[in-house]
Amino acid sequence: MKINKLSYQDYLFVALQFLIFATYFVPFKIISISIPEWLRYSGLVVTGMALILGTTALLQLNTKISPFPTPVSNGKLIRTGAFSVSRHPIYTALVFSALGFTIYQESLVKLLITLVLFTLFYYKSRYEEKLLGQTFSEYEDYKKKTRRFI
Question: Membrane spanning segments where (predicted)?
Fold first, then answer.
């Protein structure tokens, strides 16, 4: 049984992620933008679709899920379902959920927080992909066929 050791980077990425999540849910009313009602409600549609993608990915991972980028012990590379749409469907779902809800709430501050979240997930996924490439020989081929995010 191979046990993957977590590094300080794993803890840093997860700590930053939760800090950004917490910031997102602070009720900022400083700067609001006005957008057409149909566009606001399309934000809820985007959020709903993102939740479906994220839930599908979570169900596919089953008990092999971890908030840390280091691959779990005895994990396997999943390339079907949600993982055929995106190499990181949970990150994608979280960003699109935040973006959709941001549009619905007409919040410029939440849009900035969502951009920070996307940036974090970009760098977290790069680190994770380096580790996945070291763990799974077929990962490079998977990278060529599937986008990082949607």
Answer: 12-35, 41-61, 107-123
